[in-house]
TrEMBL record:
Originating species: Pseudoalteromonas holothuriae
Protein name per its UniProtKB record: N-acetylneuraminate epimerase
Signal peptide range in chain numbering: 1-24
Originating gene: nanM
Keywords: Isomerase, Signal
Keyword Cytoplasm: no
InterPro entries, sorted: Kelch-BTB_domain-containing, Kelch-typ_b-propeller, Kelch_1
Assigned EC number: 5.1.3.24
Gene3D superfamilies in the cross-refs: Kelch-type beta propeller (2.120.10.80)
Sample GO molecular function, one term: isomerase activity
Species lineage: Bacteria, Pseudomonadati, Pseudomonadota, Gammaproteobacteria, Alteromonadales
Keyword Chaperone in annotation: no
Domain of life, per lineage: Bacteria
Length: 348
């Protein structure tokens, strides 16, 4: 089915009509950044969620001592941080049974489901895992849940209806860590297979919309971490993927959230490689601070005239009634200048 036909038919059966886009001259008068209480620790590579009026963060890369660090000055974390939206304060939540980074969190009917991610040691900081845990009570502790069919991390994590979906990312193929197009979902009892992502990639962003989700951007490991502009929509009703308009430019390590039937994408990083005069390969990296807005019914992207307060990648984004919270992330590519910044993009 052609993109335009699909979008038109889908919009007829959904509530995805976008509010009118604001002109650049008026946009700054209608949105603004609000600084919120900082996290207790500097963190990056996080997939937070909203549960019982708390922002929940667990299983990120956290700044550590040189002795304990497994990636530069960073280490996988077992800490869980909770931000009470009513009281506007951070507190420590129940500690994870294991240390993880890139741990996916999804709010389900049974609680917060923590999925896969990487274990880390100094000799191998990228040990992809299949185990999962659930936190039903924020004052209790994590319980072991049904493991993924296969190890999976750096994926798209999203709830569609009552099901928790894990899409693409990285896993093990022929004994090697690589991008996979695996798409599975947990119905509260067991994991089931769904239509695989057409183009396997990692470090994209996933956002639920009506009876489906968008998988935005990301990068391909086998192509020297080449960033992608590709955007795919998964329709749960038909168990099919449809390609949408690409993002304004290629980025990975991004965060995304929906608000008022529009999708907002934040930040990201990029790696490029070149050959110097000596014939040696050199790597160049950069991070971004742009904010993109996507309207599903028009299938159009725009770069907003307001930017993040700093470049960041590996951050988290959560939509609330107040607006969209941005959490943590690093100002430079990789694990440099990790922050504990928490900001709210407020829409008036």
């Amino acid at each position: 089915m052609k993109r335009r036909v699909f979008i038109r038919k889908f919009a007829q059966f959904s509530l995805l009509a976008c509010s009118p886009s604001l002109l650049a001259s008026s946009f700054h008068n209608n949105v603004n950044w609000i600084h919120k209480p900082r996290l207790p620790k500097q963190v990056q590579e996080l997939y937070p969620c909203l549960y019982n009026n708390n922002l929940v963060l667990a299983g990120a890369l956290e700044q550590s001592t040189i002795e304990r660090a497994t990636m530069g000055i960073m280490d996988a974390s077992s800490a869980c941080y909770l931000f009470d939206l009513s009281k506007q304060v951070w507190r420590l939540g129940p500690e994870l049974p294991v240390k993880r980074h890139h741990l996916g969190l999804i709010t389900t009917k049974k609680g917060v489901l923590a999925i896969g991610g990487f274990a880390a040691s100094k000799s191998n900081p990228w040990q992809v895992r299949a185990d999962t845990f659930v936190l039903s009570n924020l004052e209790d502790h994590w319980h072991t849940s049904k493991p993924l069919p296969n190890p999976q991390a750096e994926s798209g994590y999203v709830r569609i209806g009552d099901n928790a979906h894990v899409i693409s990312g990285r896993g093990i193929v022929h004994g090697h860590l690589t991008d996979i197009n695996s798409h599975v979902f947990f119905d509260g009892t067991k994991w089931q297979q769904a239509a695989p992502l057409p183009l396997a990639r990692n470090s994209g962003a996933c956002v639920a919309m009506s009876s489906g989700c968008l998988l935005i951007g990301g990068r391909i490991q086998q192509k020297r971490h080449q960033n992608q502009t590709r955007v795919d929509f998964y329709d749960q009703r038909t168990d099919k993927w449809f390609e949408l308009s690409p993002t304004p430019f290629a980025s990975s390590g991004i965060a995304a959230a929906s608000y008022n039937n529009k999708v907002y994408v934040f930040g990201g990083e990029q790696y490029n490689y070149s050959i110097n005069r000596a014939g040696l390969t050199t790597m160049h990296s950069k991070t971004f601070k742009q904010v993109w807005e996507y309207c599903f019914t028009s299938d159009k992207w725009q770069t907003l005239p307001i930017s993040m307060t700093s470049t960041r990648h590996g951050l988290g984004a959560i939509s609330t009634q107040e607006g969209i919270y941005l959490i943590g992330g690093a100002q430079r590519a990789g694990g440099e200048l990790t922050t504990n910044t928490v900001e709210l993009l407020q829409f008036k």
